Request: fold
Amino acid sequence: MRTPERNATALDLVLELVVLLNEDMTRALARDGLTGSRARLLWELRSRGPCTQKVLADALAVSPRNITGLVDALAEGGFVTREPHPNDRRATLVSFTRHGARIARNLAEGREQLAELLFATMPDRQFDGLVDGLEALLARLRAELAANTSSTKGGRR
Amino acid sequence: MRTPERNATALDLVLELVVLLNEDMTRALARDGLTGSRARLLWELRSRGPCTQKVLADALAVSPRNITGLVDALAEGGFVTREPHPNDRRATLVSFTRHGARIARNLAEGREQLAELLFATMPDRQFDGLVDGLEALLARLRAELAANTSSTKGGRR
DNA sequence: TATTGTTATACTCTATAACTATA
DNA sequence: TATAGTTATAGAGTATAACAATA
Reply:
């Protein structure tokens, strides 16, 4: 039987992981002149190709107003351009500049390199155990969030 | 031999965990009228007892100016008070109100409950594998951050 | 002279509401 | 009338720099 203390310690590990991962990624993004939110937008743009701000707002689950600001900053930084939409004159198409496309590739590369840094030297047995545990954790969290999101309102505590 | 794709997928699991955990905690804090930064301050205050803003600034690794703002908000919300420091008239002591102390206990309880939610029903074998993997992951991340922080300046990519 | 906390200023992320141009 | 994106306004977190009071 496991003690609550051991469970609490395991949660501490997860939370430290969150903090360190965040620091590492923030630092790496800053080297490219990016923030987390702006990088997320580039990431979406990369997987979707040129798209409207409305599409980006829905994809990132933020307000249209917020997208205006992020695209403003990314355009100013030379990462993206705003083009008129060919069919709908209300809309604008956000597209990569050459520089933006290069940086987006860098983001993808950086992520691969992070994955290798974290996992490449890990023995298979350990890796499998970690993945198995992470999947179990995610299943519990998803269930919890679904329960709390769906109006029920209660939640822990 | 593991493929880069499997490593990338494992990183995706970790990143999804980060996102969901963040959502869950943000939601829980909002129920107590708190944000992440304000809760972190309360958390420090709980483990240290009444202390100066300078101490809090160092503990949370943010600017003194930032602490002024957080304490302003927490004082306005009735979580903490500012008292004159007995020995040093430049400094102020930040202390819990009754309500703040109660909420801080709630935070600790909520964390225990989250740990139980995530781990209590997890088989020992799976739990051990997860903890083992997490520790290995953390070791790599700490090393990476230390390398990148210490002036070397290079880093991945 | 050094330290504590504040005011002043600024940047980022975020939201809602009102408005413009277009469908 | 509905939609895309903007301006206007606001709140939260963060930073640096200048300044006050006190050590």
